[in-house]
Amino acid sequence: MEKELEGTTAASRLQSVSLNDWVRILEILREKIPRQSFDTWLKPTRFIGFEGKSLLVRVPSVDFLYIKDRYTDLLQESLLRLKLDCEIVFVPSDSEEAKENERQSQPTPSSPRSSKSKRPESGPAELNPQYSFDSFVVGDGSKFAFTAAHAIVERPGLTYNPLFLYGGSGTGKTHLLHAIGNEFTWKHPRASVLYATGEKFVSEMIESLRDKTMRVFRQRVRTVDVLLMDDIQFLSGKTRLQEEFLHTFDALLQRKRQVVIACDQSPRELTGLDEKLHSRLEAGLVADLQVPNFETRVGILHKKAAQEKITLPTDVALFIATHARANTRELEGALTRLIAWSSSQGLSVNIETAQTCLKHLLGTRAKMLKIGTVATAVAKHYHLPVTALKQEKSRSLAEPRHLAMYLAQQLTHASLSEIGRYFGGRHHTTVLYSIHKIEKLIKVDPIMRDTVEVLSTSLGHN
After folding, report:
1. I need a labelling partner for 83 at 20 to 30 A (CA). Which of 116, 229, 241, 437 fits?
2. Where is this region: Disordered (predicted)?
3. Binding residue ranges
C-alpha cells in the first residue's frame, strides 16, 4: 500500500514538473517569436501529460502540427536550455490519443499587457478606439515601425522626433497613428492630442484664411502635446500651406512636443515639397511598413475574428490569407464580408462557405496559372524533371520544391491543401513551412530574390 501511494505521489510530482516545464518553454518562445505568431500558433496549446520521455501537448487541430516544422530549432534550444531530456509531442485535440490522454489544461502565460487597468472606451473624437497597440498585428514588415511608435509614447518629444511612417495603402500607418494617440491619451489624460489628415489640415487652414481666424487656427495646432498628421502628401505643390505647416512643425519641436507623420512615400520620394520641409522630415526617424506576409495575414485574421467574437477555422484563415494579400484592408474586408454573408444565410463559417462567398477574390488575380505550369518552370530552371519535385525525401531537392510551392501559392488559385497534394501528397502545413522558408530567403539572399523575379517574369507575373 505504501509503495502504491509512493508511486502515485511520484507520478503526480512528475506531471507537475512537466506542466511547469511547458510553461517555462512557452516563456522562452515568447521572447523569440513575434507576438502575432506566438498568439496564433502557441497560445492555444495546452499541456496534456507526460508519457515516458514524451511531453504531450494538445493543439486545436492537425493544422497546428505546423509548429513542429516551423519551430523545431527553437523548441530544441528551449529543451537544452532547461536541461530537459525529453521530446515534445503535439497531439491534435480531435485525435483519439488526445481524448484518451488529456489531463487538466494549464493556461499559457498571460500577456504582460493584460495586467493593465481597464482603458477608457474613447479618447479624442478624431481617434478610433479600435486602433490600439494591442489590436495591431506585428509582422516582419512592420516590427520596426511598431517598436518606434511604442517608444515615443514612453518618451514623447525626446525619442524619435519627428517620427515619419510610410508605406502603401492598407499597411497599418493610420492604425499606428491612432494607436499612438490612444495610448498617449490613456497614459497622459490631461495632455492634448491632435490627429488630422493632410486634407483636413488644408481644408481648415483655407477656411481660417477666408474667415480671418488664422490666430485661432495656429493656437489650436501649435499648442498640442502630440500632433499626428496622416497623408502629408496632400500638401505637395501647395507652397503657402507648406509654409504654415513648417512653422507649426518648428514650433512644436522647439517645445519638445511629439510630431508623427504618415505618408504613402518616403520623404526622399515625395515631390512638390519645400526643401526646408524635406529636410525636417528626414531629420527624424523614418520607418516603413510593408505589405504583411502570409503568416502575418493569418495573424491579422485571427485577431479580427476574436474582436468580432467569431471562431475562425484555421483552414478558412489560410484560404483568405492566400487569396486576399493586397493589403490589410482587403484582408479584413474579406473576413467582414464572410461573417456578414454567413450570418444572413444562416450558415456556419467554414471552408465551403468561404469559397462560395469569397469567389470574387479569385477573379481579382489576373492570368492565374496551374500548379503544373509553375512546377514545370521551376524544374526547368533547376534542370530537373518535374517528378523530382514530388519525391518524398531528398535534401538536395528541398529548395527547388520549397520555391515551387511558394510560387504556386503566389501565382495560382490552388489552396494550400491542393498544392500539398500535387507535390507528393504533403500536408498543407508543410506547404506553409515552405512558403515561410522562401519568404525569409528572399529578404537575405539576393540569388533567391533574383530567381523568384526571373521565374515570376517568365510565368507572366512581375
Report:
1. 437
2. 95-128
3. 170, 172-174
